[in-house]
Structure formats: structure tokens, C-alpha cells
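Next up, a chain.

===
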Amino acid sequence: MVTDVTTSAEERELTELAEKAVNELVRRMVGQLPDSPSADLRDASTEQTGAEPTAGNPLDHLRALAHLSRAVTRCAQQEAAAAARAGANYPQLGAAWGISRQGARQRWPGLVFTARPASRPLPNTEHRSPTVNAFSADRPYNVLLVEDDPADALLIEDALVERGMARSIAQVPDGLAALEYLRDTANERPDLIILDLNMPRMNGRELLAALKKDQDLGSIPVVVLTTSAAPDDIAGAYRQHANAYVAKPINLTEFIEAVQGIDAFFLETATLLPRS
């Protein structure tokens, strides 16, 4: 609690400092504003009160603040892009700006993120045989997310990226799109498939059945991540040889922890299938 109070006091102090700096900059800018109808407001005010003319009036100040606001927006965009290139993710950008990860996505869409190194060092293969080295190549992990809900897809991607492990994430909205992606030789074979059940065109149950019958694709680990906790859905997924079944928690923190738990086990703890 003491830490929270201290942090709050520090935040208030920084806000007050920023406001003083802004007010001082506004006063300096007002003198450089071109003549506008707001000058009439200032003149009328001084005539009525008999006061000495002042540097600007509320409308002049508002005009100056508008220029500052546009400048801050441009500068923030530039800094967010630079942070993304340096390895920051949307949760970190949101925390820096004092908003949520979703808010950061909306404020700065389309940023180009640089993959950060793995959260733990990959095994040293220098003194191992070629056979063993094939199982532990220093490479990014590939995840295929099959999810039709855009909000859930963003949360899952953020949760994966937040762990800091080097990886690429591809997202498709249904089973048919997933099969097209998997059978396209231009795409890297995923190390893990995260699969929702309820989707249009081809749902997760149908995709899971198709995958496990496919000689080339059947060995890819598949984790079902869905809102359903129905016993029939759970039993059906395991009958179709799903590697794990996770019901999506309602609580946001628990949701993120569940996704990161999947990631930690299948991409760090378990030994990956070697690439051909």
C-alpha cells in the first residue's frame, strides 16, 4: 500500500510538472498566433473590465493547445513505432501511455514489431551430434491460431508476445482457412496449433478430425482453447486426439495466464518435433 501511495504521489507530481510546462509553452505560442476572431473577444473583455490587455484569451489558448495536441499525437506515433521496432509489445506500449493493451492497439494500429529473443536461452548445440542438433535448432517457434473472434484473437496474440519468446504467429478465422494455410508450401509448418471449436464454415471439431487423419499434419500438437466446458465437447476433442483442452477463463488475468501456460509447456517444456 505504501508503494501505491508513493507511486500515486509521483504521478501527480509529474502531471503537475507537465501542466506547468504546457501552460508556459501556450503563453509563448499565443504571441505567434495569426490574427483571428478570437482577438475581438480579448478586446471586448478589456473594454468591459478596463483591465490591461493580456497575452491572449481562452480561445487563443485553445488554439495553441490544439497545435500541441496534434504535435503530441505525431510524436507519440513515432515513439510507439520506435519502441515496437526495439522489441516492445502492445501491453508495454499501453502501460507506458496509461491505457490498456486494447487501447494501445486502437491508438497505434499496424505497428511493425521486432521479435524479441527467447525468454530462456535455447540449448547449446555446439558439442552435440548432428542427430541431436536437428531436434534443437536455434529457430523461432511458429504458432497457428485458429480463432474467429477478433477480440479473443488479439488477447491470445498479446499473451503469447508478452512472454518474450521468439516466435511467429499466424491467425486464420476457420477450419477451411487453416487447412489452406497448412497445405500451402510457402508457409512454415507450425510447432503448435491453438484451436477454437465454434467457428463458421468448418468448425474446430471438423478441423481436428481432418488434421488427425492427415499423415503429414497429424503430428502437429493441437490445443483446443474454447469457451465450452461441456463434457461432451471435452470428450469429443480427446476422442479426436487433441493434445490438450482448455476452457477459456472469463477473468482476463486468468485468460492470459492460461494462454501463457499452454505456450510455456508446448513450446518450452515439451520437445518439439524436428523439422524435415
Notes: The chain has a mean pLDDT of 78.
